[in-house]
Amino acid sequence: LDSTMEPQNRKAEFEDAKAKAAEFLAKGDPQAAIDQYGDAMICAFDDTQRGAIHSNLSLCYLRLKDYAMALTHADVAMALRPGWEKGYFRHGEVAFEQRDYATALKNYEEAVKCAPNDAALNHRVKLAKEATEGFYFRQLLPGRDICVDAKNPVEAQIFGAAVQMQNFIYLVGDARTRQCAVIDACWDVDGIIAVAKKDKMSITRAVATHYHFDHVGGKPPPPFDALGIEVPGIKQLEASGLPVHVQEEDAKKLRDIGVKETSMTLHRDGDVLRVGDVRLRFVHTPGHSPGSMIVVVDGDNPGSPGGGAGIVVSGDTIFPGSCGRLDLPDADKERMFHSLAKCASALRDEMTVYPGHNYNGASSTIAKEKRDGLLRPFTKTQWEAMMGGK
């Protein structure tokens, strides 16, 4: 390209080279994009255009994992356009990829100063802060975080049912290593994965608090089976190579929906699963199902979950003010009585409780459930009277 060409032709060549570069980048060929951005640079008129090209070159080199060149171009973009957010953003992206989270946070915050209302930049600040602390936690609700924008009529029916069921799905893990487990993956597997990807996290484990279809997927039981639709869930994650963790008494039910036994780790009370440096502790709480379990993340984990008191992902064992249904075929009122008493005695009052459904609030505490819910003390006779008999 000739930098001495007429301004009109030069502008056309600049836009053409930039468009071709973007096309190559979209196709996953950053090296070809680099060549085109080089041509665009020759035709650039001013520092505004040159700064934009350097920003794009930083992205290209980041895709190639050439961090030195990615940082060089990010810094040039910052120098050419010091009041523009993209140069700081690019520097932050490189630092984040290298797990230099303090530097990433500093640059993301500088980018936000330039564009305070940019949602994506503010999200990056949140991710970098979490990464410096070490704990990652997301509570996903159908209709809000997942199960939106159905691609076909069948998916629309599934999403509609998910919104009615009000299940919570959880992503829990290590914000420093960028690994997380998904707890009770159901209804919208692609949506769950998209949330993790947006957060720069990799889902490395699938955990089931119990086997019911609205928590792990599969064919719904009557009367929910009228539509003849299979709900996506843990089976699809397992098919992609993800290990599955379940309490041993519910394992057969997962095999029944097609989860391979070789992919499953069967757990007993007190087992611990490490996700990065974060420990998930499984407590067997039979009652709602034979293999129901709660997932405890104690407060001494990285990032001090629950403000240092810890958190409990309670599945359908503990709801704010209640517990999971006990009128199902393999539910057991007596076992639930003992499970609730076990939770009341073994869990710290300050722990935050995150339930399996949004039936009476998105969270509670052990102390509140001891005061107002079914963790309060009562005799077995009182329990049986509340539950309508043995």
Characterization of the model:
This protein is of the alpha/beta class. Helix content is 45%, strand content 15%. It contains 15 helices and twelve strands. It has helices at residues 7-26, 30-43, 47-63, 67-80, 85-97, 101-114, 119-133, 153-165, 189-198, 213-216, 234-239, 251-256, 333-346, 366-372, 380-386; strands at residues 135-140, 169-174, 179-183, 202-207, 244-247, 264-267, 272-275, 278-284, 293-297, 311-315, 352-355, 364-365. It has a six-stranded mixed beta sheet. Strands 7-8-9-10-11-12 form a six-stranded mixed beta sheet. Strand 7 (272-275) and strand 8 form a beta hairpin. Helix 2 runs antiparallel to helix 3 (47-63), helix 3 (47-63) packs parallel to helix 5 (85-97) and helix 5 (85-97) runs antiparallel to helix 6. The radius of gyration is 26 Å and the shape is elongated. It starts with 6 loop residues before the first helix and ends with a helix.
Radius of gyration: 26 Å
Low-confidence stretches: none
Residue-averaged pLDDT: 95
Query: Strand portion, in percent?
Result: 5-15%
User: What is the count of β-strands?
Assistant: 12
By DSSP (H or I, 4+ residues per run), the number of helices equals: 15
- What shape does the CA trace take? elongated
What structural class do the secondary elements suggest?
Answer: alpha/beta
How many strands, what sense, and barrel or not for the largest sheet?
6 strands, mixed
- The percent of residues in helical segments reads 40-55%
Major beta sheet, strand line-up: 1-2-3-4-5-6
Gap from first CA to last CA: 85 Å
Name the helix and strand elements from N-terminus to C-terminus, one letter apiece. HHHHHHHEHEEHEHHEHEEEEEHEEHH
